[in-house]
Model the fold of this input.
Amino acid sequence: MKRFLLMAATLVAAPAMASIGVDGTAEGAYGAAVSVQTLQTNFGDANMGAVDYANGSELDAAYAVIKGGNLYLTLAGNLESNFNKLEIFIDSHAGGQNQLRGDNPNVDFNGLNRMAGLTFDAAFSPDHWLSVTGGGGPYQMYANYSELLSGGGGNGYYLGQTGAASGGVLGGGFNPNGILATINNSNAGGVTGGTGPSSGAGVTTGVEFCIPLAALGDPTGPICISAFVNGGGHDFVSNQVLGSLPNGTGNLGEPSTVNFNNHEGDQFFCVVPEPASLVLAAVGLLALRRR
Ligand SMILES: [Ca+2]
Ligand SMILES: [Ca+2]
Ligand SMILES: [Ca+2]
Ligand SMILES: [Ca+2]
Done:
């Protein structure tokens, strides 16, 4: 009987042992996607199949899990290698900017402030911004970060750069919390081109992050995220947003006039902290003992 109990505990604890590597692919340890694209891309349907360069952009699915003091996030799909931007807004605590201000830190050629005026769904007020972009030869991916304080100002900086499917270490920037990021651009499936219904389900390659919770103000509750693909100057919002825009939606264009309240559904998604699996194992043991 004792051996059986030990086995049961081991089985329950097993999923937590699986580790996540920052390589641009959402491995099984993430579990199911937390958000799936339902709209064709209006920003080019990538078909090259190369790990580094892509000739279109789409956000097929989001995988996210909070474990070991980190937020692991994979935005599966493609980011065209023409320096189009993947914008990621993170709501991890009270306050923030439901409507983007124009007096945020000047990072990435003042690209964050280029989006001033953009309004998120009412329930979403991000506190942090991450943006990645890529291109050149050899291919490099570049990452930027800023706080989004309720009153503007704060800290923002260039995190650094890395190659495709690199392991995620960013070099040449300022990255005090050790955020990791890289890209695998090889997806040639997912949604097709246009503005009609399509599904991004099943795509697991894209831009992957490991974000220490310290970089997000050490939140203990759910973390919500809104992500979209934007033009090279942070100046033309595509129709690739997660949570998905409704079917029939084309590119949104000028960022300052975008208001996600005008588009059906939540243009954000949330991830809750994983319950401590050892606690789960203990609960399982207790339940068995009570039999
Ligand atoms: Ca991975
Ligand atoms: Ca907030
Ligand atoms: Ca596609
Ligand atoms: Ca909405």
